[in-house]
């Protein structure tokens, strides 16, 4: 196994643990255990948990960029692309019900820790915000594109938090339907 | 200082620290330091952090009941009462921008910790949900009162999470206005 691959394995394991157990609650040894490597090998790659966090955020940013590029390619219209964003609540509902949203819960945790990586983690939100803003602009809503992007991001975050507390599949599906209805109203305002 | 008061002081200090730093990140000694009592005196009242958490949740439940009773008394109509709920986003915006929502962030953290107190913490959400449901019923929306309550709770949670990440006062005010608009549309659907 090359050094590069071991490092990737560590970051992938940390990513999952930070999401499922929280950053603060995850220990060095839990990550080493998940990757099945020695402490020595581990320290060769990362000296502190903050270094791992930085790598985890970089990994999530890269994965988010890939996801947004995929939606861009798959969706024929801006409305269809925004619907892809709305539907991650359904696609990822099993994890969301257990652990909340990976972006929202990390940003909230780092804010409380007053962690230096807070600004970096918030870039995850900014990626979605910028992408949504562009889609709303393409939809013909240039003037309020950013407001609509923030509104939709907030709705999606709120559904994650409550789905995490109450575990309701029906609730998620109903809210997703409401968001899609809201979206098509916004599109029709332009057409009308 | 009576034993009762010292205990109350501990719980109040822990409540604030759990909110501002997170439950996991707050240590016994930080709480003792905030209350300026000896470790011995501290242990007389609480043996574990989980015991403190239980008391903190009980305190928050009591304070939430008081708050809801106050809104009930102050608001002449169900619509006015629901607006009181919406406006906590503005009233508490300074803390929300720094630390998020106390209810949402605690529930999310305890879900990741898979903590036994998770169900108790979720009762905080349930208090708001039940109260909102009753107000929507009084508003004449008996059939979908719970859906509307959950929808509004989710919107409020989402605004907290994004205000915490992006610190925008304008964003909060605009979303509060949108929620109030949404509310008066729901009321007019009944009247119309």
Automatic annotation (TrEMBL), chains A, B:
Per UniProt, residues of the HTH tetR-type domain are 4-64
As one GO molecular function, the record gives: DNA binding
- Membrane-spanning residues where? none
User: Is Cell wall biogenesis/degradation found in the keyword set?
Assistant: no
Q: One Pfam family of this protein, by short name? A: TetR_N
Which SUPFAM superfamilies does the UniProt record give? Homeodomain-like (SSF46689), Tetracyclin repressor-like, C-terminal domain (SSF48498)
- Superkingdom in the source lineage: Bacteria
Chain residues forming the annotated DNA-binding region: 27-46
Kindly indicate whether the keyword Transport belongs to this entry. Answer: no
Keywords in UniProt for this one?
Answer: DNA-binding, Transcription, Transcription regulation
UniProt cross-references to PANTHER family, sorted A to Z: HTH-TYPE TRANSCRIPTIONAL REGULATOR YJDC (PTHR47506:SF1), TRANSCRIPTIONAL REGULATORY PROTEIN (PTHR47506)
Q: What is this protein called?
A: TetR/AcrR family transcriptional regulator
Origin species, per record, is Denitrobaculum tricleocarpae
């Amino acid at each position: 196994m090359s050094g590069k691959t071991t490092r990737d394995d560590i970051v992938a394991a940390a990513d999952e643990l930070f999401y499922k157990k929280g950053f603060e609650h995850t220990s060095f040894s839990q990550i080493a255990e998940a990757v099945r490597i020695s402490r020595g090998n581990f320290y060769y790659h990362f000296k502190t948990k903050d270094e791992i966090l930085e790598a985890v955020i970089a990994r999530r940013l890269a994965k988010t960029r890939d996801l947004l590029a995929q939606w861009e390619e798959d969706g024929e219209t801006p409305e269809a692309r925004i619907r892809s964003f709305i539907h991650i609540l359904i696609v990822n509902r099993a994890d969301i019900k257990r652990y909340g949203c990976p972006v929202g819960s990390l940003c909230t945790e780092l804010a409380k820790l007053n962690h230096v990586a807070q600004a970096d983690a918030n870039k995850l939100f900014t990626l979605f915000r910028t992408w949504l803003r562009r889609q709303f602009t393409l939809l013909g809503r240039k003037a309020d594109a950013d407001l609509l992007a923030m509104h939709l991001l907030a709705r999606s975050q709120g559904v994650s938090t409550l789905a995490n507390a109450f575990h309701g599949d029906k609730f998620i599906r109903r809210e997703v339907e409401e968001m899609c209805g809201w979206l098509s109203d916004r599109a029709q305002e332009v057409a009308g």
